[in-house]
Amino acid sequence: MQLSLVSSWVETIRKLPSSDGNLQCPVPVERYFLIISTVCFFAAVVHTVIELRAKVFRPMRFNFFAIGVGYVFQTAFLWIRGQELGRCPITNLFEVFAFLAWSVALVYMLVGSAYRLSLMGAFTAPLVLLLQGFALIAPIDIRHSGTVPANSWLEFHASMSLVAYGVFALACIAGVMYLLQERQLKTHHLHSIFYHLPPLTNLFAVITRLLWWGFALYTVGIVSGFFTGRPLPRIQVVAAIALWLLYAAILQARHLKWLAPKRVAALCIIGFSAALALLWGITFTAELHHVP
Amino acid sequence: MNLFCIGLSHQTANVATREQFAGNATAESIARDAGCAEALLLTTCNRVEVYAVSDTRISTEEIARCLIAKPDRNQDNYAPPFYRYEDSKCVQHLFRVASGLDSMVVGESEIFGQAKKAYESARTSGAVGPYLHRLFQRAFRVAKQVRTHTDIARGAVSVGSVAVELAQRIFGKLSECKVLVLGAGETSERTTRALVSRGVTDLRVSNRSSDRARDLTQGVGGRDVPFDDWVAQCREIDILLTSTASETPLLTSEVLAPMLRERLDRPLFIIDIAVPRDVDPSVNELEGVYLYDIDSIRSVAEQSLALRRQQIAAAEAIIAGHVADFFDSISRGLNRLSHATEHSAIGENPLRASEL
Questions:
Q1: Do the interacting molecules here have an ipTM over 0.90?
Q2: Which residues, in sequence order, are bridge partners of residue B40?
Q3: Fewest beta carbons within 10 Å, which of A30, A232, A267, A288?
Q4: pLDDT per residue over B220-240, tens digit each?
C-alpha cells in the first residue's frame, strides 16, 4: 500500500514539466533517493569522526538511526528502479554497487543488533558511503537500449551472490575491528575506542559465523549460476570459483585451527577485496559481452 | 535562606588536618549546634564536607568548630583550610563531587556510594529536609548522566582492575576462563580476587611453598598445582598471573611457542607483576599472546586516567546545564518559601509548605 503510494508519487514527479517544458525529469527521480541515503551514511561517518576527534566516542543510537534511514531510502531506490526495469535492478555497475551497499546495510542491521555490535555501524557507514559515493559520482549508470528479457535464475544467481558479498563485507569489517583491538592489546596503547570495541573472542566468533553464512549464500549463488541457461564468460566462472575456493580455504583452516584468529581476520579483508575486484570484473566483462 | 557547603578535601588540606575534623560530628549535631535548618555531612578519606541550609548566614568558623573533636579555645581561626561555596557554586560543587570530578582519582565511582550513604544517614536522623533532598536527588541523577554520557569512569586505574578490564576485552565473559596463579603474593592475591569477583571459577594456584598456595586456594577457591607442573598448564589456561621471586625468567618464547601450536585459536593473557620479571618480554611477540608486565599495567592505568581527564570538559558541560536548571528551580522555591513564611500560621513548617 505504502509502496504503491510512493510509486504514484514518483510518477507524479516524473510528469512534472521541467523549465524547458519537457516532461522528462533530467535526473531519474529514484537517484535522489540514493543521494538522500548517501547523505544519511555521510552523517553517520561525520558523527563518528567528530566523536573520535573529541575522544568521546560512544556507539550511540545516532549511527544506527542514520543507517536505518539510509537503508529505507536505499530500498526505495532499488524498488523504484526495479519497477521501472521490470526486474531485479542489477543491470549495470551503478545498480550493482547500490545493491551491494544495500546488502551491507541489511546484513549490518541484522548482525549488528543480534550481536550487540553497535560499534560496527561506525565501520559499516564508511564502506556503504564509499560504495554509493562511487556509484553516484562515476559515470557508470549506463542504460542498455531495449528491454533486457528477465531471467529468473540469472536474477536469483546475481542477487544471492551480492547478498553473500554483503555478508563478506561485514566479515571484513569485523576483521578490521579485530585487528584494531588486537593491535591495541599487543602494543599496550589503548585509545578511547578500545573500551567500545567488543572482546576479541566475541569478534572472532562473529567473523566465523559471518564467513559461514557468506559462504553458504555464495555457494547457492554460484550453483544457481549454472541453471541460467546462458553461457557465461569463462573468466567470470573461473574467478567466481577461485573466490569460492579462497573462502572455503579460510573456513577449512579456521575449522582445523591451522590459522591464528589474527590471520583469519586479515584474510577476511583480503577476501572481500578480491570479491570487490571480481564484482568489477564480472560487471565489466558482462557489459563487454552484453550479458545482463 | 542560604544554601552552602563548607569543607576541606585532599586538594586543600593534608591528611593530618583532615583527620582532625573527621568522625567527630553527625549531620544532626551540626544542624543542632550551628543552627541550620538542614544539614548533611559527607565524610570520606579524601574530604569532610557539610552541606547545609540556614535562615541566616552561618560562618565557616562555626561549622569548623562543630566538626573538630576538641576545639582549642586558644585558636581563633579554624577557617583557613576550609573552602566555602554558596548557592549555585554549592550546587555545582556537589554535582562535581558526586560525579567524581573532584576526586583524587578522577571519575572514581566510590564517592557516589559514599554520598548516597551520607544522604541516607542524614535523612534517617531527620537532618535533611526538602532542600537538601532535592539537591542530592538531582546530584545523583547528574552523576549517573555524567557516567553514562561520557567516558569519565572508563578504564581501570589499579593493578587488579586493569588486569580484569584487559581480560574482559580479550575474553568477554570470564566465567569460562581458566586461570593459573603462579606465586601467591599479596598483589597476586588481590588480582586473583578481582578476577574471581568477575566470574572466574576455574582457578589453579602454583607456588614454591605449597602451604601458601593452599592458603590462597582456600581463600578464593580453586585448586593448587605442584610447582613443577605449572608450565604444562599453559596448554589449557587462558590467563596466567605470575608474581614469583625468581631472579631469572621462568617462561620464555622457546618454552611457550610449541604449546601455542596446540591452542592456536585461543588467546593467552599473561599478567606478570613480578620484579624481576617472570616472563621474558619476547613472549609478547608470539601470536595470540598478550603479555603485560607491571610497567605496562601502570601505563594502561595512566592512559585510563588521561582518558578520564579528557572527559572532564564534557562532564562539566553536563553539570553546568543541570546547575543552571536546578538553581533556577531552587531560587523560585526559596522565594516562594520566603513568601509563605511571611503569611503562614505560627507553627506551620514553612519548608513543608514549599513545593520544594
A1: no
A2: B51
A3: A288
A4: 888 888 888 899 999 999 999
- Same domain for B190 and B329, yes or no, is no
Q: For residue B269, what is the nearest residue in chain A, using CA coordinates?
A: A185
Q: What is the pTM of this model?
A: 0.73
Say how many CA atoms lie within 13 Å of A90 toward its Cβ.
Answer: 25
Report the chain B residue with the minimal C-alpha distance to residue A261: B265
Q: Which residues contact B185 (CB under 8 A, 6 or more apart)?
A: B243
**Helix or strand run (H / E) with residue B203:** strand B202-206
Q: How confident is the model at residue B79 (pLDDT cuts 50, 70, 90)?
A: low
| B196 and B96 within one domain | no
Q: Both B72 and B197 in a single domain? A: no
Same domain, B163 and B301: yes
Q: Is B132 in the same domain as B244? A: no
Q: What does the alpha-carbon distance between residue B249 and residue A13 come to, in Å, rounded to a whole number?
A: 76
- Which CATH number characterizes residue B186's domain? 3.40.50.720
Q: How many domains does chain B have?
A: 2
Residue-number span of the structural domain to which B104 is assigned: 2-153+311-353
pLDDT for B307-348, tens place per residue?
A: 888 889 889 999 999 998 887 776 676 556 555 544 443 333
Residues with pLDDT less than 70, chain A: 1-27, 54-60, 113-119, 144-150, 284-292
**Could you tell me the CATH number of the domain that includes residue B331?**
3.30.460.30
Three-class secondary structure of residue B47 per DSSP: strand
Q: CB distance from A49 to chain B under 8 Å?
A: no
Whether B15 and B102 share a structural domain: yes
Mean pLDDT confidence for B209-230: 84
Identify whether residues B7 and B149 lie together within a single domain: yes
In CATH terms, the fold of domain A150-292 is Four Helix Bundle (Hemerythrin (Met), subunit A) (1.20.120)
* In chain A, where the domains are located: 1-141, 150-292
B271 has which bridge partners? B241, B292
Query: What gap in Å lies between CA B323 and CA B53, rounded to an integer?
Result: 17
3-state SS, residue B5: strand
> Which residues of B lie closer than 8 Å to A, measured between beta carbons?
149-151, 154-155, 166, 168-172, 264-265, 267, 284, 287-288, 290, 292, 296, 299-300, 303-304, 307, 310-311, 314
Could you report the per-residue pLDDT of B277-289, keeping only the tens digit for each? 999 999 999 999 9
Please, what is the angle between helix A261-288 and helix A234-255, to 10°? 170
Please give the grid coordinates belonging to residue B113.
556510594
- Structural element, H or E, at residue B106: none
Residues of chain B contacting A56 with CB distance shorter than 8 Å:
150-151, 310-311, 314
Is the same domain home to B292 and B167?
yes
Final residue of a structural domain among B270, B286, B305 = B305
**Residue B181 parent element (H or E):** strand B178-182
Q: Answer yes or no: is pLDDT of B36 > 80.
A: yes
Residue B6: pLDDT over 80: yes
Cell of A163: 547478498
pLDDT at B50 over 90: yes
DSSP for B227-296 reads: GGGTGGGGGT-SEEEE----SS-SB-HHHHHHHHGGGTTS-EEEEE--SS-SB-GGGGGSTTEEEEEHHH
Contact A243, A279 (CB under 8 A): no
Q: In Å, how far are A186, A282, B83, B165 from B172, measured between CA atoms?
A: 17, 41, 45, 10
